[in-house]
Design a protein that fits this description.
heterotrimer, A alpha+beta, B alpha+beta, C alpha/beta, A: Glutaredoxin, 2 domains, 6 helices, B: alpha+beta, 8 helices, 11 strands, about 30% helix
Amino acid sequence: MGTINLDRIIDRHGREQSSLIAILQDIQDHFNWISEEHLYHVARELTLPVTHVFGVASFYRALSLKPRGKSIIKVCMGTACHVRGAPLIADELGRHLGIGPGETTPDLSHTLEVVNCVGACGMAPVVVVDNVYHPGVKAHRAKKLLKTKGAKE
Amino acid sequence: MLLTIDDTRVEAREGQTLWEVAAENGIEIPTLCHHEALEPRGACRICMVEISNPKWPGWSRLVTSCVYPAEPGLVVRTNNDEIHEIRRTIVDLLMARCPETGPVLELGAKYGLTESSFVKREQDDNCILCGLCVRTCEDVIGACAIGVSGRGAIKKVGPAFGVGSKTCIGCGACAHVCPTGCIQVIDEGGKRRIPRWGVEFELVRCPESGMPVSTREHIEFVRKRVSVGREVLETAPEMKRKFYARKVASEGHM
Amino acid sequence: MRFESIQQLDERRAFLRDARGRVKHRVIVCAGTGCVAGGAFEICAEIIRQAREAGLDVEAELAPCGGEHENGGPDYVSASGCHGFCQVGPLVHITPEDVLYTRVKLEDVPAIVTRTLAGGQVIDDLLFVDPASGEHQKGREDISFYNKQHRVALEACGVIDPESLDDYLAHGGYAPLVKALTSMTPEQVVAEVEGSGLRGRGGGGFPTGRKWRSAIKARDAHGGTMYVICNGDEGDPGAFMDRSIMEGDPFKVVEGMTIGAFALGSAHGYIYVRHEYPLAVKRLRKAIDAARTAGLLGDDILGTGFSFDIRINRGGGAFVCGESSALMRSLEGQMGEPRPKYVHSTEKGLYEQPTVLNNVESWVSIPPIIEKGAGWFAGMGTEKSKGTKAFSLVGKVNNTGLVEVPMGVTMREIIFDIGGGIIGGQKFKAVQTGGPSGGCLPESLLDTPVDFDTLTAAGSMMGSGGMIVMDERNCMVDVAKYFVNFLIQESCGKCVPCREGLPQLHAILSRICEGTAVAEDIGRIHALARVMETASLCALGKTSAYPVLSTLKYFMHEYEEHIRDHRCAGGVCKALITYSVNDNCTGCLLCKKACPVEAITGEKKKKHAIDPGICTRCGVCESVCNDNAITVE
């Protein structure tokens, strides 16, 4: 489970309540999601009720309490992207993957998310695949994004 | 300090909220999410009142009386057309969420609503998310077995991860404050179940009467915090007099 | 190096200024998030590598440009923050000649090095082409997108290397802080900010000086620790001004907060950056570390005895945390639920202490106000809205990007003169401002001067500066539904009017978009919107109905068409539109192959046909067609 890593993350931020969100974000960056065990461990180390930690973890959209895929595809749904066709792109990607927004493929290969404006509005519509920004995406070429695994390819 | 509520001059103390001042003076302001023993939350918005101040003619504001602090010279209206419309709409919205809930329906009847004019939710849930149960469990009891999770329309109240709480002590205080009765505490067959939180406990029986008193967990919880012997806590309330009488007779003290 | 005194700082600045003066060519490669996606870092690295290989004297840092160099001086090549001209990135800007190369690719680097840097020639093919005249335009002075702007908050974005303290110092950075620390009292700094008329740039428009004053008053009356917060949670979809400032001029954010902390008597600052801006977080972290190392942040700044430090917190993906009380809860490690504003956060904010929270753009306005004075700032803009404002001009406009103009410039000037008009020669329909709290304004209001109060009077609001342009292919009912859906996702869920009201608004709008609504539904929207506005706990809920209300006000005919005629003029609402093939069809079979449900029939070189019974309105055919042969109505 990586308890050593977990404690290192907690040590880096300190055991105050104000560090809670930063700790959860680092856990997610490291493990790709936040499990029940992670939350219980953090609650213990920060001396917080587990209901509080769970409440915070479930409030913030950036934190996932379900396992996520190896490739994370984020379709920007900001206003500029919306008026330039983002919903059709999200539909296309969902159709190819067989999942809806917020879901992960059963083989844990891909997670499709629709996210709020990523701030690259000049290049709408934008899709971010594994932290790589793809500008000016067209609906009929959306499925090509599923082959790229971000910067590694 | 002095202020005016519905044309009545009333006295208020520093730190009081408008709702408290009104209640003290027999002026009733409806509310769903407020309880005197708990920190106000300002969530249901039904307790809204209109405030104005002769110092600033032409200015008025709608505020939630459960939270707004009393100020000298404030002129408060607990009802008018706009407030009536707000209360009616809020109850209407809640009825779309909880069509079977007693207190909501009662309030609805006061505004002429027998059923909601809005689209019903796919799943009803008698919980109106007032948060009283959570505030009780956290601030009064201190067990922190239930909390608020999620955000927006999927906001929920319950144990972490939505399943059986590991820290619930089965005291039932949550059910006691719940305004809609959607938290059921079922005592039968020597067990206590609170299905909403997915928990079940053994009930401890009073050695005198054999009646179930409370859960072992609840008794332990209290015992750790209050210097009272376990036998006292395990005695049913109606048997305590007999218990103490015998103790005084045999030991000379309580 | 650490500056132990102001004198040391001044000496270093003089040295760096001299170094800057020795540079022959300054080559700036835009490296905002947008251009990075286009390969900006690779382009920058290649320019340096190939230029050195070609024997040119190239430096990647400013300091080495000082001292003796041959051939008229070195070329200083570096990346910068967002230039703001996103439609045509990646951008390479060369000064002093003012040559701006657009849509630069890695393959263009050899030509840039040999023909321009070495040969002094301009490569026409890489220049910007003005959509109106069709002419090539050489540089920022020629391109109307740039020359009609008046950059104050964005002044250094695209001009300096945001990761270089040296470049910031040479550019004049930290001179305002020195002026404040050496020749002004905290009270004088507050008075200067008050006199400038600066109003909060995050959307609220509250006078900044007044906010500072009330926090000081609260602290003096009740004691406590003063906190200073920078709100970098830019949540309005379509707005990226703050992102660009944080990425492009992070030192100025830090400096602005430091000056503010001095005026307010604060030792603790926080910058809250939204989760979706990793590059901004990285650049701010670097700037803070560099400032600390240099003695410009932390204990005993520049040996003056004043101490102030800043922590960066990332948001968790919650728009509501852009609301100041929710942001403070988030900093405390709680859920981002707002509090009613009966007790102001200037009195009881973070940890119940007096707190001043300002937006990124507000903070970077402080150093120039201190340096050039309140009068300079107040000399720009309108009577009640002083200074300039940065806007993100996006959507169906030719020159999308960041635009900064003095308050009072009209929307027509911004959209048409600077923005170059609507793409593809289409017709303008509406411009949306103010994000989910704002509204849509029609063509008849294009001559409205833009400032805090005029747009509010028209039924929208200026907000943080997002300006989304729409054309005839957008449906205003769909836009209203989009914003309501956005807010449903983002509502914190605490209060009934917002949590329960928004899904009900959405249900009514969905009925309209599906053609199952009735005329009374309009009245129901108004009634519900009224209650949401008066009874919601925070500004998110209170303003949540504005996008719907403004579209009802100015585009009622579209609502009526949806309800009465079951027609969506913008061609967006799936239940009300049909896709068909028109006479432009060349029979190329592309759409037939692309259609996921095999709804298109046709042979090569013969006009194709779409079966409306099978068609799912997914839009792929229109996307793939190169001949404009798909009609949607």
